Structures are given as C-alpha cells and as structure tokens.
C-alpha cells in the first residue's frame, strides 16, 4: 500500500516485528523490526496520533499510528510519508507567496515612482512659471491650469494672477503713453467719461 511517491502503510505486532510487506523492501521487510518503535508502542497502548520518525534508511518521515485488536491480539497500524514529500505543497505555496509578494512590492514601488513623478513634475513646472512671473515675463501661459485637482487649482490661480498683472502692465503703458501725449499737447484738452463728466482738463503747453 502506498501514499504518494514515498508513503506506505504497514502492520506491526506486539513484538515490534512487521506483519506485512512494505512498499520499499530496502527499508524493511515482513517479520523484520519496524523502525518506528515509539509509534508502535503508543499504538499498542491504544493511542492514536502523529509523530516524527526515521525509516531504516535514515530518511525522516511523519508517521500516523493507531492500535486495533483482532482475535484478542493487539496490532499496530502505521502509515508514514517522507517529510520532503509531505511538506512539498507547503514549500511550493511559500515560494509562490514569496514570488507574488515580491511582484506586488515591485509594482508598489513602480507605482510610487510614477505617482511621485506625476506630482513633482507639475510642481516643478509651476515653480518655473512663478519665477517667470516674478521676472515680469507675463506672456507665457501657466501649464497644468486645465487640471481638475489641487495642482490645477494652484496653476489656475497663478494664471489668473498672470492675466491680471498683464492687464495692469498694459494699462500702465497706455496711461504713460496718453500722459506723454497730453503733456506735449499745444492745445487745451479735456477728458470726460461715458456720462460726459469732465475728469481732467489739460491746459495748452507753451513751447519755448
């Protein structure tokens, strides 16, 4: 009888000798001494359980045992399997879990890098635009102003500031131009608003 590639089931008597052929004759044979004497002793005492053991060839195994009585004679029924085969599924699962966790961790790192770049790149660009505005460069549009997030809000605020400063600069140039024109006029000039209310009266300049 066998379990997997390395498992076997056998019966032992109260004298500790095997009463059945084993699957692997090189380890033990019928009427030879069974290697798992501790398991046989507990089985003959009526116990049932699972313990670590070693076969005659020195291979470590897990042995399940139980005792039974047949025609007033106590017998021990044992089934064992090598540790390497018994724990192979667990070892395979552990390797798979380690591999999967490694893949997940690598994915998290890559996503973190991409997210960090996605955040830092717009901030760096907006910071560059702030320097341009501070240096009176009011012609370049602010990037990322069309985004619908916090970065877009910051960029849109800076864009509004740039537009306001640009309009103020244009008004200042226009005012200076008109002021220069008024100051150099040789005829009287009057400025009125839309309601025809006089806002300024410029007398003629006497040219010397």
UniProtKB/TrEMBL annotation:
Single Gene Ontology BP annotation: phosphorelay signal transduction system
EC main group: transferase
Membrane topology label: Multi-pass membrane protein
Annotated localization: Cell membrane
Catalyzed chemical reaction(s): ATP + protein L-histidine = ADP + protein N-phospho-L-histidine
Gene3D superfamilies with a match to the protein in the record: 6.10.340.10
Residue span(s) of domain HAMP: 117-170
Organism: Falsihalocynthiibacter arcticus
Enzyme Commission number(s): 2.7.13.3
SUPFAM superfamilies on file: HAMP domain-like
Gene Ontology molecular functions: ATP binding; protein histidine kinase activity
Keywords: ATP-binding, Cell membrane, Kinase, Membrane, Nucleotide-binding, Phosphoprotein, Transferase, Transmembrane, Transmembrane helix, Two-component regulatory system
GO CC terms of this entry: plasma membrane
Name recorded for this polypeptide: histidine kinase
Pfam families documented for this protein: HAMP
Spans through the membrane: 101-120
